[in-house]
Known about the structure:
The protein is mostly helical.
Amino acid sequence: xxxxxxxxxxxxxxxxxxxxxxxxxxxxxxxxxxxxxxxxxxxxxxxxxxxxxxxxxxxxxxxxxxxxxxxxxxxxxxxxxxxxxxxxxxxxxxxxxxxxxxxxxxxxxxxxxxxxxxxxxxxxxxxxxxxxxxxxxxxxxxxxxxxxxxxxxxxxxxxxxxxxxxxxxxxxxxxxxxxxxxxxxxxxxxxxxxxxxxxxxxxxxxxxxxxxxxxxxxxxxxxxxxxxxxxxxxxxxxxxxxxxxxxxxxxxxxxxxxxxxxxxxxxxxxxxxxxxxxxxxxxxxxxxxxxxxxxxxxxxxxxxxxxxxxxxxxxxxxxxxxxxxxxxxxxxxxxxxxxxxxxxxxxxxxxxxxxxxxxxxxxxxxxxxxxxxxxxxxxxxxxxxxxxxxxxxxxxxxxxxxxxxxxxxx
Length: 410
């Protein structure tokens, strides 16, 4: 594969992966306007974000077997078309409840790009290069939170929040064209993979029995759901508590997104000297410490807007380190069931994203405390699962060695 081919493939896979981040981030500056148009609260509008996360979680479980059975492109086409149609539906909805439902269906379509992109990395690159490929993919994904809310802020201010969803439909149509004409096929269809419930569940159980997948999918999934708490609460924190405009909020969001871009680049270099396991361990330790500082400061009212932004920047740098390494380690043991593994991993991450965003909405009290508390808990719980999981695996391995030695002596 030439350097040009590598760049084009990563760019298209990154574009597929950014469909959901754009869908999540681009309409955030419109929350106050949406709440005003529908005569409701921002907390109710936040549920449209929660429904999107739930839709991604459910949809990825559906696309995993479909991608393994029919190959990568046909299910991807179907998902992208569903996304385009429901985006137009979101633009012309007349109530917040309809918007919440439409966002769920939009996620069902959009998550096809996320699952297919992860599976295609496993298809098109050797195992030794997947962590670096995922780092590059994460870099492309990380650019979207810099662009999406900033563009969304200006679009909302000039054209209204409805235009955001029309633009999303147009962008996805362009991605669909690129997928059809430029992106390689990847893994071929496998007719031996059944779509009946029992074999599908069996495939998922086969994936879940792999200890490496279980540890890094759980730890990484919980830890990387911290930004979803930030996404859910940031519009209220910066626009209502600190009183910034839609445009300024977009620039704040872009600045904090840069934390993930910088650390993604750093991860690319760190992988030349350290193992992915070492990077994740260190990252979750420091994120837990910074998260605790955020919670204590929010409780005692120590932080103004700028000090809060600085600490959150430090915290979010961890996402560019944890995400690509956890993904690579989760998918490394698989070839045949890579689609199902990617679907399970992505479904869990988005399910956790739905729970964290719902928790921020439920705990809403007009302060920064709900947002930063949920962020800290995500990092801390991920760290605990990682440490305990690896300890259990080492213990079982040592027991197996002892039993083998005893059997030889006997």
